[in-house]
Amino acid sequence: MPVSFIVPVPGSEPDLDDLHHLCSEQLTAYKRPAAIMVIDSIPHTPANKVDRKALHALWADAVSRPSDIPS
Protein backbone atom coordinates (compact mmCIF):
# COMPACT_ATOMS: atom_id res chain seq x y z
CA MET A 1 0.00 0.00 0.00
CA PRO A 2 1.59 3.30 -1.06
CA VAL A 3 1.77 5.82 1.75
CA SER A 4 2.98 9.41 1.44
CA PHE A 5 4.74 11.20 4.25
CA ILE A 6 4.74 14.98 4.17
CA VAL A 7 6.50 17.59 6.27
CA PRO A 8 4.48 20.81 6.22
CA VAL A 9 5.94 24.28 6.36
CA PRO A 10 6.13 25.32 10.03
CA GLY A 11 2.90 26.95 11.13
CA SER A 12 0.83 25.53 8.28
CA GLU A 13 -1.80 22.84 8.36
CA PRO A 14 -2.04 20.86 5.10
CA ASP A 15 -5.46 20.02 3.72
CA LEU A 16 -5.31 16.26 3.23
CA ASP A 17 -8.42 16.24 1.04
CA ASP A 18 -6.77 18.71 -1.33
CA LEU A 19 -3.60 16.60 -1.38
CA HIS A 20 -5.57 13.44 -2.18
CA HIS A 21 -7.39 15.31 -4.95
CA LEU A 22 -4.11 16.61 -6.38
CA CYS A 23 -2.62 13.11 -6.32
CA SER A 24 -5.66 11.70 -8.13
CA GLU A 25 -5.26 14.33 -10.85
CA GLN A 26 -1.48 14.11 -11.25
CA LEU A 27 -0.58 10.45 -10.59
CA THR A 28 -1.51 7.22 -12.27
CA ALA A 29 -3.69 4.96 -10.16
CA TYR A 30 -0.95 2.59 -8.99
CA LYS A 31 1.20 5.51 -7.77
CA ARG A 32 -1.54 7.25 -5.76
CA PRO A 33 -1.02 7.03 -2.02
CA ALA A 34 -3.65 5.16 -0.07
CA ALA A 35 -2.86 7.42 2.86
CA ILE A 36 -1.02 10.65 3.53
CA MET A 37 0.71 10.98 6.87
CA VAL A 38 1.86 14.34 8.23
CA ILE A 39 5.13 14.09 10.18
CA ASP A 40 7.42 16.62 11.85
CA SER A 41 10.57 15.61 9.98
CA ILE A 42 11.89 12.93 7.65
CA PRO A 43 14.03 10.45 9.61
CA HIS A 44 17.56 9.85 8.33
CA THR A 45 20.13 7.11 8.80
CA PRO A 46 23.64 7.90 10.08
CA ALA A 47 24.67 8.02 6.38
CA ASN A 48 22.09 10.83 5.93
CA LYS A 49 19.80 8.73 3.72
CA VAL A 50 16.05 8.56 4.25
CA ASP A 51 15.42 5.97 6.95
CA ARG A 52 12.76 3.85 5.27
CA LYS A 53 12.59 1.46 8.22
CA ALA A 54 11.75 4.36 10.54
CA LEU A 55 9.04 5.55 8.13
CA HIS A 56 7.64 2.03 8.00
CA ALA A 57 7.62 1.94 11.81
CA LEU A 58 5.72 5.25 11.93
CA TRP A 59 3.10 3.85 9.57
CA ALA A 60 2.90 0.51 11.44
CA ASP A 61 2.41 2.40 14.70
CA ALA A 62 -0.40 4.49 13.18
CA VAL A 63 -2.10 1.39 11.75
CA SER A 64 -1.95 -0.32 15.14
CA ARG A 65 -4.15 2.50 16.47
CA PRO A 66 -7.14 2.43 14.08
CA SER A 67 -8.60 5.68 15.42
CA ASP A 68 -5.38 7.50 14.50
CA ILE A 69 -4.92 6.22 10.94
CA PRO A 70 -4.31 9.22 8.70
CA SER A 71 -6.45 9.59 5.62
UniProtKB/TrEMBL annotation:
Organism: Streptomyces botrytidirepellens
Residues passing through the membrane, by range: none
Domain of life assignment: Bacteria
InterPro entries: AMP-bd_C, AMP-bd_C_sf
Protein name per its UniProtKB record: AMP-binding enzyme C-terminal domain-containing protein
AMP-binding enzyme C-terminal domain: residues covered: 1-49
Signal peptide: none
